[in-house]
Every structure is written in C-alpha cells, then in structure tokens.
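Example S7 (structure tokens).
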C-alpha cells in the first residue's frame, strides 16, 4: 500500500501467462515490453547499477531470441513496446509511457444506479 499512497508505480518482471490471468479477472495493468535491436546491443549494455557481470555473446543471443519469440506471441498483451540504445534511455521511455497511460481517462462501472 505504501506505493499507492506515494503516487508511484511498481515495476515487475512477469511472464505473459500472468498478464493473461490478470486480464481474466478484469485487471488491466500497464504492460511495457523492453526491446533491443540485436543480441549485440544486449551484450554491450553497460551500467554497473543493473548489470554486474558482462554477458557472453551466446547468452545475449539466447535472450534476444527469447524476447523476439515473446514479442511475436504476446504482442496483443502489451500496452507499449519501448527500445533505446541504453538502459537510461529505456528508463526514460518507460516513464513517458506510464505518464501517458496515467493521463488517460478510465471508466469504471459503478454498482449504484444513476
């Protein structure tokens, strides 16, 4: 509840089946898919705050192939797809998407008669 009262959002790493489950119960979270242009871009990410160890090219290629598969199969669940040359740019773009989604009007049914 602390996050709610601080007017913040939680960022969670979830699998697509979790998103589908939420949709079945009529919960529609902001779902942002982070995309890289290539395995090379994944391998070259440099930010000691988030990446403590360097990835091998094989690991980067596996990550890229997996994210491509997820994007192709589950694109319909994503609110937005963001990409950028660095983690800092990705974070800025995520913030923009969240701000845009928060500004939208949300219609919620009421149990009271008008």
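Recovered sequence:
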């Amino acid at each position: 509840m602390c996050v709610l009262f601080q007017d913040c959002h939680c960022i969670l790493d979830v699998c697509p089946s979790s998103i589908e489950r939420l949709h079945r119960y009529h919960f529609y979270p902001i779902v942002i898919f982070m995309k890289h242009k290539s395995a090379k871009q994944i391998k070259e990410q440099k930010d000691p705050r988030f990446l403590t160890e360097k990835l091998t090219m094989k690991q980067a290629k596996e990550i890229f192939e997996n994210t491509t598969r997820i994007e192709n199969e589950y694109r319909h669940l994503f609110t937005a797809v963001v990409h950028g040359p660095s983690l800092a740019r990705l974070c800025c773009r995520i913030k923009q998407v969240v701000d845009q989604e928060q500004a939208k009007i949300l219609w919620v049914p009421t149990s009271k008669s008008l």
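Notes on this example. Residues 57-74 form the longest helix (18 residues).
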